[in-house]
Design goal:
mainly alpha; Growth Hormone, Chain: A; two-stranded antiparallel ribbon; 2 strands; 1% strand
Length: 553
């Protein structure tokens, strides 16, 4: 047991547990680590998990600057596509209420049905990306959002605007669900935490800029110009995907995707002879594989621009649909769903209720001023992002070294500690000072704490799920996206009325209490997470249900 993480009762190998640091490991004479690939330079003591193949087109073999460029490009595309469409309505809600003569609840449904469409379209993302890769799905999704933005520029009625928002929603799920699996395919374990935090920057922080921009444009130039400006953003997003994001799907088996070979982590004395025989018998196969891989030419940049590179799985699409729902047997997937969905819903709740709180007296804020209320969220989010980007991998590597060099995915859960602190301060502070009609500057500060809690929760849950269950990462994040958007859709029918009837203190205080309970659940996941991983690996329900993947070479 390391750092209060309960070990399995039979001390068996567990998927996700890996030998990461060989500088201070003490595994006796049974561990043969000399044949494993290591990092370079300051990371020469770090064992690469998963082990890259010898294929030059393996994303794990791409140069680090190229992988980081792809990560930043995908983050940028997610910002201007997924990060801008959703929150753009919030600050101009009062303007839309007056223009279309509808209630605030009706305006909120422009976001609600948009998110419902996103959830429904998300059902296809997992099967399609597993079968045909991520690039073609992202390209088609970017085109759909652009078409929806083009429609919005000509929308002259509430119904037409609703149709445009729904069409935009159909293009979002790819950018909301495959970012973290993309990181798992391009980076080894000791590199992922920082990149997960980088990916959360546009999704969780910089999208606060979009309501600010939309509010200023709508106030000074009108709603039509706001729609036109976002159409330009989506066009830019499409070209970013086309020129800067290659296919990252690689035909890697589940065994190659998981962790350090079991014989390295634990090799009892009575198995030494057997392991030696296995190593001798497999060395010839590895040699042949390396020779074959070395003969594969590296793709040129222009070859990587092909929208479609063929099938990546032998199973049919119907079977892939089954995997999306089959992962719901997993308690950790449900924990991640609840952790990300609830905090995201409360944050969106603030966005869609800001106009309701600050447009009427005594504030009488214009759309631009309502948009500027997101300044606190922007600052709080950037500070929390800086913490996650700087500390995520450093803390994990330090814990692995102190744990005899062995990495446990539960080490990724440390951000839940600051998540608890910022949740308490943010929700209860926002509710109290909004109830007391305090100055907007004070309320903005607590909006920043709420956004920080969002960042910490997403960083912890996404990093943990990526490292502990990499083989079902695509389906898991699709499931999270589905439930998140369905819950968002439902919340648009009651959040505005709930705020009006209960008042800010009860409204945000209740949300804060729920968030505390969800955060405390991470303690259980941390302590028992390894045993859960072991039990589910032994059950292997996906294989029993005939839903295992068979990659195409």
């Amino acid at each position: 047991m390391g750092f209060y993480i309960l070990n399995t009762r039979d001390n068996s190998d567990v998927p996700g547990t890996s030998l990461l640091d060989d500088a201070k490991q003490d595994l006796g004479g049974n561990a043969n680590i000399s044949t494993l690939k290591h990092g370079t330079g300051k990371s020469s003591h770090i064992i690469l998990v998963p082990q890259p193949t010898d294929d030059p087109n393996d994303p794990l073999n791409w140069s680090i600057w190229y992988r980081d460029m792809v990560t930043v490009a995908f983050s940028f595309a997610s910002l201007i596509i997924a990060g801008s469409i959703g929150p753009m309505i919030g600050p101009v809600s009062a303007v839309l209420v007056e223009k279309y003569n509808v209630s605030f609840a009706k305006v909120a449904q422009l976001t609600g049905y948009h998110l419902l469409a996103c959830g429904l379209a998300g059902l296809f993302v997992g099967p399609l990306t597993r079968t045909y890769g991520k690039r073609i799905v992202c390209l088609v999704s970017a085109l759909i959002t652009f078409a929806g933005a083009l429609w919005a520029t000509f929308a002259n009625s509430y119904g037409s605007l609703m149709g445009a928002r729904v069409l935009q929603g159909f293009g979002l799920p790819a950018f909301e669900s495959i970012g973290f699996p993309l990181i798992a395919e391009m980076y080894c374990v000791h590199q992922r935490g920082t990149r997960v935090a980088i990916f959360i920057v546009p999704v969780g922080v910089l999208n606060v800029l979009c309501p600010m921009i939309s509010a200023v444009i709508a106030q000074n130039m009108g709603l039509k110009w706001m729609a036109c400006s976002f159409k330009s953003f989506f066009r830019c997003g499409f070209f970013t995907v086309f020129f800067l994001i290659p296919e990252t799907t690689f035909p890697r088996s589940e065994q190659q995707f998981s962790s350090t070979p079991p014989s390295v982590l634990s090799a009892p004395d009575d198995q030494e002879d057997e392991n030696a025989k296995k190593e001798a018998s497999t060395s010839r196969l590895e040699t042949v594989t390396r020779i074959q891989s070395s003969m594969i030419p590296k793709k040129t940049y222009w070859q990587t621009l092909k929208p479609f590179a063929g099938r990546y799985a032998t199973e049919d699409i119907v079977k892939m649909f089954g995997r999306t729902f089959a992962v719901l047997y997993h308690p950790i997937v449900w924990w991640a769903i609840i952790t990300q969905t609830i905090i995201s819903a409360w944050t969106i709740g603030i966005n869609i209720t800001l106009a309701q709180m600050f447009a009427p007296p005594p504030y009488l804020f214009t759309p631009a001023k309502i948009g500027y209320l997101g300044t606190g969220a922007l600052i709080g989010g950037l500070i929390s992002e800086a913490m996650c980007i700087t500390l995520n991998d450093k803390i994990v590597k330090a814990m692995a070294r102190a744990n005899n060099g062995v990495f446990e995915p539960e080490f990724r859960l440390w951000p839940m500690i600051p998540c608890m602190i910022t949740s308490v301060i943010g929700f209860f502070g926002f509710g109290y000072f909004a109830q007391e009609r305090a100055s907007p500057e004070v309320i903005c500060v607590f909006y920043g704490f709420v956004t920080a809690a969002l960042i910490f929760a997403h960083s912890a849950s996404a990093s943990y799920l990526t490292d502990a269950y990499a083989t079902i990462a695509v389906e898991s994040f699709v499931a999270i996206m589905l439930f998140k958007n369905f819950f968002f859709f439902a919340s648009t029918f009651f959040l505005n009325d709930w705020l009006a009837s209960a008042g800010p203190m009860k409204f945000f205080g209740t949300q804060g209490g729920i968030q505390i309970a969800i955060t405390l659940a991470a303690v259980f996941v941390y302590i028992f997470g390894k045993r859960i991983r072991s039990a589910l690996a032994k059950l292997d329900l996906l294989d029993r249900w005939g839903l295992s993947l068979h990659v195409m070479k």
